[in-house]
Amino acid sequence: MKETILITGGAGFIGRHLAKALLERGYRIRVLDSLIEQVHGPSGNTSTLPKEVEVIIGDVRDASAVASAVKGVDRVVHLAAEVGVGQSMYAVERYVSVNDCGTAVLFEALINQPVKRVVVASSMSVYGEGLYRTVDGALVDDAVRRSRRPGEPWDPLDAQGRPMRPVPTPETKLPALASVYALTKYMQERLTLTLTPAYGMEGVALRLWNAYGPGQALSNPYTGVLAIFAARIHNGQPPMIFEDGEQRRDFVHVEDVARAFVLALEHPAAADQVYNVGSGVDRSVRDVAHLLAQAMGRPDIIPETTGQARSGDIRHCIADITRIERELGFQPQQDFAAGLAELAAWVAKQQAVDRVAEARRELEARGLVA
Ligand code: UD1
Fold first, then answer.
1. Does residue 186 line the site of ligand 1, with CB under 6 A?
2. Residues with Cβ within 8 Å of residue 343, at least 6 apart in sequence
3. Which of 109, 133, 243, 288 gets the most CB atoms within 10 Å of its CB?
């Protein structure tokens, strides 16, 4: 008989792609999702999910909804979470409640009804600043951003005050939690890896880098940077780049992320492990803004650089994916240029409400961009 997989938060961007990939592999899929308005809009519907998916509309903090959702399930993917780093720095109760109490409620249900494996979406944000190398070649694994005066470098400095270069960050780097969001993600990860073995289950945590692709919540101003930039360009507005735009991330296509989840659910070697998930290629925020404007046929839109930093943001973190490649056979397949072209084609058919200025005011009013 086919196994049933529960995806919490499964109506979201990653969940929908994952549901499709798992259906193709013959699983039965159940989704628990509260369809929050910030992500799903006022009409919050599930029409973008494949019709074979069983949908339970409910909050992951609601014990009775979660108890029905876990009934008869073989494995769980836990994606339900609030995801904005900037927003987490003021909506503290909401982030801690959804992300951590939600995970606690899920596990109390799983204690009564254990499954084979639970895979949780953790985040690269648990690392804080990634790994760096000094100009002398020494590795630094505890870099921090200090408060910066105008004209000073944006990059973290070594003990002699010299800017350092980011290098790929492996899973062995110790966490350095720099935002409420990061704290909540680490808690989700640890709850999973602490409780699963205690109840005869297996746990896996995937530390995701910046997922992008068609289906991102374009009208959510707290979503990932590529979707925010796409919504701005779609409305003829310039993307607003924080800092100097040279901060680096790893943008990983959502279908590659879905492939990583499939491996994490199925591969025997993944039990009780933590894996980075990225494309293995790092890019600056400035480069992706320009490339996206070109892909969307608007090379005339010149991104604006604000010179301000968002509280809770890290400067650079780039992914070392050798572990998931070696142990699970993960291979990112999506080319970035093709991924941007696909995103642009999808965005062209969408309506996107530009709420970026509104979101920026929320941060500014609290002194969280400076
Ligand atoms: C993002 C995800 C987080 C995920 C993490 C994994 C969101 C909201 N956050 O966090 O859930 O765990 O990736 O890597 O999806 N920026 C601008 N202009 C903007 C918005 C952002 O310049 O309008 C900059 C930010 O200052 C930052 C970079 O873009 O330097 C990335 O920001 P963001 O997309 O929010 O991602 P992360 O903080 O990396």
1. no
2. 212, 213, 214, 216, 226, 230, 292, 295
3. 288
